[in-house]
């Protein structure tokens, strides 16, 4: 099998046929494109999501916290607690595990997040450290935003820059191959992307603004995220390549490793759909968050305009990151 996420069609079959029972107090269920489940608790609801970090070693704890909190943020609520599982290879030391936990704790302090529990073990089942987290968020009843509510006519907005997570990982692991491609300032910029990896602020702002749909852009890049939104919402999209917010540093990294920046892991960017994109872009700007409209939600078909031509977008495959991490 290919490294990375399972094929979306095959994964859908597995999910649909293995859900246990359906409870009435579960308002939103996880699925393709729907990273969070929402459980009703009287006047409030609990938002839950889980994800591992498998494609990075440096910044492991920081990434593990933020990619999971970003899922909760995409529901428009604030994360409040996290459960942490660490699976360490036999080559690990106690210091290695301690450093990862200290990094996790430091990021949780920044996000006002409590570590609720978890599990840690050394095992021969892995050849590098794996961190998997589950995050819980809390919101008022019926306040959570669903990935599946994008509507034809919605503007599609992207926050910050695409490919930041992938670029940070590439520079962290392949600096020797990039030293002649990037300047010292560009390497410093790429390393700094990890400080912009959270989308909790824009998630909170967009949730209060009443957007129709949100999805954080992770494995599979912006095209993978768009595919998942369209699949969950039973609609399509039409976007323009020239509108994509990609830094020059990311472009250079992608060119070096023959990577498609639109399929490059992009934690730190949020995909949002709403009726008045310009109004939302202005609101985000007032809160010092850059964003741009890249297209619209349509009735059907997934289209990207590139070099003046319309192309259909294929379903997501393995993230381009794995070209680097082989």
UniProtKB/TrEMBL annotation:
Domain PurM-like N-terminal intervals = 33-137
Question: Which domain of life, per UniProt?
Answer: Bacteria
**Which biological process, per GO, is one annotated for this protein?**
protein maturation
Q: Which InterPro entries match?
A: HypE, PurM-like_C_dom, PurM-like_C_sf, PurM-like_N, PurM-like_N_sf
Q: List residues of the PurM-like C-terminal domain.
A: 151-305
Q: Which Pfam families match?
A: AIRS (PF00586), AIRS_C (PF02769)
The entry assigns this protein to a family as follows:
Belongs to the HypE family.
Which PANTHER family does the entry link to? HYDROGENASE EXPRESSION_FORMATION PROTEIN HYPE, HYDROGENASE ISOENZYMES FORMATION PROTEIN HYPE
Q: What is this protein called?
A: AIR synthase related protein domain protein
Recorded source organism is: Clostridium pasteurianum DSM 525 = ATCC 6013
């Amino acid at each position: 099998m290919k490294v990375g996420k399972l094929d979306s069609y095959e994964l859908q079959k597995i999910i649909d046929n293995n859900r246990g029972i359906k409870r009435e107090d579960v308002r939103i269920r996880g699925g393709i494109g729907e990273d969070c489940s929402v459980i009703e608790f009287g006047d409030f609801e609990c938002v839950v999501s889980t994800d591992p970090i498998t494609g990075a070693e440096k910044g492991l704890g920081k990434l593990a916290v933020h990619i999971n909190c970003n899922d909760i943020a995409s529901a428009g609520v604030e994360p409040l607690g996290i459960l942490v599982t660490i699976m360490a290879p036999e080559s690990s030391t106690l210091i290695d595990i301690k450093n990862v936990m200290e990094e996790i704790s430091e990021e949780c302090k920044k996000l006002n997040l409590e570590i609720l529990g978890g599990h840690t073990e050394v095992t021969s089942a892995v050849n590098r450290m794996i961190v998997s987290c589950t995050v819980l968020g809390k919101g008022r009843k019926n306040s959570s935003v669903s990935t599946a509510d994008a509507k034809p006519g919605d503007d599609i907005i992207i926050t910050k820059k695409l490919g930041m997570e992938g670029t940070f990982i590439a520079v962290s692991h392949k600096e020797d191959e990039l030293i002649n491609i990037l300047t010292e300032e560009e390497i410093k910029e790429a390393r700094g992307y990890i400080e912009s990896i959270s989308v909790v602020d824009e998630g909170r702002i967009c949730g209060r603004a009443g957007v129709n749909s949100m999805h954080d852009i992770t494995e599979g890049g912006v095209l993978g995220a768009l595919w998942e939104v369209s699949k969950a919402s039973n609609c399509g999209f039409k976007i323009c390549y020239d509108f994509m917010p990609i830094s020059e540093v990311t472009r250079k990294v992608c060119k070096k490793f023959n990577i498609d920046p639109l399929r490059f892991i992009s934690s730190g960017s949020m995909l949002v759909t709403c009726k008045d994109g310009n109004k939302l872009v202005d609101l985000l700007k007032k809160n010092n968050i850059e964003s741009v409209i890249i297209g619209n939600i349509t009735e059907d078909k997934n289209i990207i305009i590139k070099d003046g031509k319309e192309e259909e977008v294929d379903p997501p495959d393995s993230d381009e990151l794995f070209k680097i991490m082989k």
